[in-house]
From TrEMBL:
This is N-(5'-phosphoribosyl)anthranilate isomerase. Belongs to the TrpF family. It comes from Anaeroglobus geminatus F0357. The lineage of its organism: Bacteria, Bacillati, Bacillota, Negativicutes, Veillonellales. InterPro entries: Aldolase_TIM, PRAI_dom, RibuloseP-bd_barrel, TrpF_fam. CDD domains: PRAI. One of its GO terms (biological process) is L-tryptophan biosynthetic process. It catalyses: N-(5-phospho-beta-D-ribosyl)anthranilate = 1-(2-carboxyphenylamino)-1-deoxy-D-ribulose 5-phosphate. Pathway: Amino-acid biosynthesis; L-tryptophan biosynthesis; L-tryptophan from chorismate: step 3/5. Its EC number is 5.3.1.24. SUPFAM superfamilies: Ribulose-phoshate binding barrel. Residues 4-191 form the N-(5'phosphoribosyl) anthranilate isomerase (PRAI) domain. The keyword Isomerase applies.
């Protein structure tokens, strides 16, 4: 099972990521929490092991800005958290050839159905609450037929339960933090739990 450490903001976070080798790391370019500038992200990318893809997390971002970050090599995957529609995704696809993840907030079966119809390469299922540590009703995951990334509220206490739903990947952020900062001990413990399976 793949792992994404999201919301990395400092060299110390990258150092632990290089040690643990998650399948992805995420740089947040949306909202206020854990947000990094283009310059900060480029500096972090330069410290990151070259074989670990960096995912840029965006919400209603101009396509041109995303393209700049892809072309510069700052990010290798695009993750969309806004209300990007099929037209937006098509425009992005025609201009850059990187994997595309679309996030969906899940509250009921209709949300799962909408996610299933996405044109993105991968879908990410979340609680929509943005790093609050809350989970959505996971029993709804039994309805999904395509590979998905599970996010929202993952932590050391529930990661084993999350893995039982067999997602393609686990996306963790607040669950590996203490006092709003990434916690190396929690990052190591989370990876141990996942890799022990």
């Amino acid at each position: 099972m793949k792992v994404k450490f999201c919301g990395l903001t400092g060299p110390e976070d990258i150092s632990v990521a290089n040690e643990l080798k998650p399948d992805y790391v995420g740089f947040v370019f949306a909202g206020k929490k854990r947000r990094v500038t283009d310059e900060q992200a480029a500096a972090l990318r330069s410290l990151l092991c070259h074989h670990i893809p960096a995912v840029g997390v965006f919400a209603a971002e101009p396509v041109e800005h995303i393209l700049q970050l892809v072309i510069s090599g700052t990010i290798q995957v695009v993750q969309l958290h806004g209300r990007e529609d099929k037209t937006y995704i098509k425009k992005l696809r025609t201009q850059c050839d990187v994997p595309l993840i679309k996030a969906f907030s899940v509250a009921d079966a209709a949300d799962i159905e909408a996610a299933e119809q996405s044109d993105a390469d991968l879908i990410l299922l979340d609680n929509g609450a943005g790093g609050t540590g809350r989970v959505f009703p996971w029993h709804l995951l039994r309805l999904i037929k395509r590979p998905y990334i599970l996010a929202g509220g993952l932590n050391l206490c529930n990661v084993k339960k999350a893995m039982a739903y067999a997602p393609y990947a686990l996306d963790v952020s607040s669950g590996i933090e203490s006092n709003g900062r990434k916690d190396a001990a929690k990052m190591r413990a989370f990876m141990r739990l996942v890799r022990s399976q």
